[in-house]
Amino acid sequence: MFQVASRSLVKIGEKPMSPNSFLLPARSTDMDPGIWSRLPEEILEYILSFLPLKSFLNLRSTCKHFRSLLFSPSFISKHSSSSPFSSFLLLSHPQCHGCFPIYDSVLSSWRNFPLSSSPLIPRSAPSTLVSSSNGIFCFSLPSSYSFLVCNLLAKSSRVIKFPSYPFGFDLLTLVSTPFGYKIFMICSKFSSNEVFVYDSKVHSWGKFDGFQPILTDNYHQEGVYFNGSLYFTTPEPFSIVSFNMESGKWERPNVELPGELTFVRLVSGDGKLYLVGGIGRNGISRSMKLWELEEGANWMEVERLPELMCRKFMSVCYHNYEHAYCFWHQGMICVCCYTWPEILYYKVSRRTWHWLPRCPSLPEKWSCGFRWFSFVPELYALV
């Protein structure tokens, strides 16, 4: 019956249509711009979040809206849930010429990072990596009297001129926040140790009073950012001082340190402040412990470094503890030595100590100058 009805609609001399072609309208292979241009933004962002990162980065120049998505935390959270980034431990050394060894802490593998191939890093002038924070690197460009702050993942950078000429600095610390970043440093040119802070929100330097006496004799340890302030330690007798990044005021927290310390380093991560210190007498460490700051401003002992690992670390330092420095990396407290190419780290979640072995591609002739940095790529880290 259906076939009879369909044939009755065909004119004489015309080729009869099939039942399917009679029932379905003709489809266009082109997308209707009238529909796609009115697509709600939240649906468009959801679709784009499934793109591979490299493909999406190529779309940045298409329109301002796509570029703005790079700095949208809501979009980053969608994208990161489908394709999380790896995190890396990056090694900088005076003999690193453009290619930096990095350790992928997610895949547990070594690789080389050709930093010199990035168009953000100038090739005509020497540069030194001095600090990192939340996916942002800070390089010193002494020949041009400036710093270079860049986000390699977002392919954005900014050149920041030194506040004065000539200029020498110590304890430089880069602090990145969701609203920008700040660069803290003490200018060694002045006897009063004046402090300079660069604020990315106003793109200018501020000058503040220094702290007397000198903060530390370990220039490899950066300031530790915790609750809006940078924390430092003083030489013996050991104590802790802090610099408020908003007010520019120095404070001496009423926190008593453990006894019989031979050296002390601070680390912050996951909203907590930790202390790594050697225990001994006459400047010789016999053991090393880890403490956590409690709410009552007391240090609670967390772990003690196993004896064999402690012996190795102390022999690496040759009891010259000014070469030791610490930093936080993705749930790990990393303890490093300026003269040694390995990292001793504490896994907080497992409460275990480990050695990260020497990079297999590292030349044997490299002796001192090993500076490790935490590199956690962040698309929305503003530069």
Topology:
Elements: H1 2-7, H2 19-23, H3 33-36, H4 41-48, H5 53-58, H6 64-69, H7 73-82, E1 88-92, E2 99-104, E3 109-114, E4 128-133, E5 136-141, E6 146-151, E7 156-161, E8 169-177, E9 180-187, E10 195-199, E11 204-208, E12 224-226, E13 229-234, E14 239-244, E15 250-251, E16 261-269, E17 272-281, E18 284-293, E19 299-304, H8 307-317, E20 324-329, E21 332-337, E22 340-347, E23 352-356, E24 371-375
Antiparallel strand pairs: 1-2, 1-24, 2-3, 4-5, 5-6, 6-7, 8-9, 9-10, 10-11, 12-13, 13-14, 14-15, 16-17, 17-18, 18-19, 20-21, 21-22, 22-23
Task: Please tag this protein with its features.
383 residues, mainly beta, Neuraminidase, 4-stranded antiparallel sheet, 8 helices, globular, disordered N terminus
Descriptive account of the structure:
There is one protein chain. By secondary structure, this protein is mostly beta strands. It has 2 domains: 50 residues, no CATH class; 288 residues, Neuraminidase, CATH 2.120.10.80. 15% of the residues lie in helices and 39% in strands. Strands 3-2-1-24 form a 4-stranded antiparallel beta sheet, with no helix packed on it. This is F-box domain-containing protein. InterPro entries: F-box-like_dom_sf (IPR036047), F-box_dom (IPR001810), Kelch-typ_b-propeller (IPR015915), SCF_F-box_component (IPR050796).
Top CATH class of the largest domain: Mainly Beta
CATH superfamily of the largest domain: Kelch-type beta propeller
Shape: globular
CATH topology of the largest domain: Neuraminidase
Mean pLDDT: 83
Report the span from N to C terminus: 72 Å
Number of domains: 2
Numbering strands along the chain, what is their spatial order in the largest sheet?
3-2-1-24
- The share of residues in helices is 10-25%
Low-confidence stretches: 1-27
What does the radius of gyration come to? Answer: 28 Å
- Measured by DSSP, the beta-strand proportion falls in 35-45%
Give me the number of helical elements.
8
Q: What characterizes the major β-sheet?
A: 4 strands, antiparallel
Query: What's the quaternary structure here?
Result: single chain
Architecture of the largest domain, CATH level 2?
6 Propeller
Output the structural class: mainly beta
Number of strands: 24
Pfam families: F-box
Domain F-box: 33-79
Protein name: F-box domain-containing protein
